[in-house]
Give the backbone structure.
Amino acid sequence: MGSRRDDEEQAAAVPLLAAAYPTPSGLRRSHAGDVHLLSAAFLFVFSAYLPTQNLQSTLNTEGNLGAVSMGILYASFTVFTATAAAVVRWLGSRGALVVGTSGYALFILANLLPTWYTMVPASVYLGFTSSLMWVGQGTYLTSAAFSHATENKLHLGQVLGRFNGEFWGMFASTQVIGNLISLVVLGNDKDGGGANKKNLLFTVFLGCMVIGIVLMCLLSRRDKIRGESDGHEPQGRSFLPDTSGSAVTPLADPRMLLLAPLLAYYGLQKAFVWAVFTKSVVTPVLGVAGVGGAMAVYGAAGVVSSLVAGRLTSGLRSSTFIVSTGAVLQAGVLLWLLFLYSPMDGLLGSAAPLVVGAVWGVGDGILNTQLSALIGLLFENDKEAAFALGKMWQAAATAAVFFLSPGATLQGMLAALAAALVVAVAAFLFLSLVIERSHALKF
């Protein structure tokens, strides 16, 4: 018993930078090192893209070009997720990440000359490439976690939690960094600083994109998961049911059907922040200039919650508790906005949207981390298709909010979001109960 305990303690003490292996270039990099590189690449790419997305309805107002472009983008994303898994398998996850980044660069380039002939094609292409990029991201990170857990005899759920916590923590910080870049370059001018400042901003963003693409190219290839061929498995790798030899796809898998409401809610709550919260809660109190500050607070809260949630994740049981905590926080905000909130003057009134943004950001960071880890745990045998299907649910829900929000009231959107949250949490808790009883995941 003492020897076994010593072995377990020694395995648990293995740092996340262990298990270095040679890359095609001859350098040695750990599996966790690839996750660091992946996170840094997304940091540069989305520090440029997210503020560009936030500015569409403000800068490209003629004929609602910006809003229409965003609707086309998410509709394209939803459609192309149907083929994303097959394309990612063909390109490999690293190839999909590199190709995916090109769409974001083209979209920012189109903003230097925003017309219907530049923005619409760029939006359609970005919808296609972003579906590849996000499926590639989930596949790549899961493969790295599997390899790291296998080689160091660590629990797969714990490694997935830590890797996803780091990635989504870095990703959430792009809201802070990107908005600060916009603020510095554009200033507080109501017209956005004029054409010269706009062009300067998008040029800076293109520079960030180039750095992101270079970092993507430096990633190691992960076409096959390391450790599978030698008969070894990481701790905690056991799924309900084992469909590796069957014709069951994630679309027909009961686990995905029960997880789908939570995936859809994730897309709804994201779009609520972008399309409704900033317009109907922040702007009436803080004005347009306060949107950047509120989103920066939202992003900062997401960074902290992603890192903490990732560290606390060890498997399905811990994910259930963490997701439930995030759901309670967002439910509290929804009910307060629905029944108690009204714009107020003074310091308290100005602080209210910031507090709401911070609490909402905590819940968003939790969902970011946990959903990616859950898909990696439950669908490792068909991870490309599972991540593609997950992004399809999210994108479809996001597109629905963008198209419906102009004609909906704040109260109506809050009520719909609260109802979606109840359904999502109920389905997820049922999924956790079924898996727990079947002993499909070991803790």
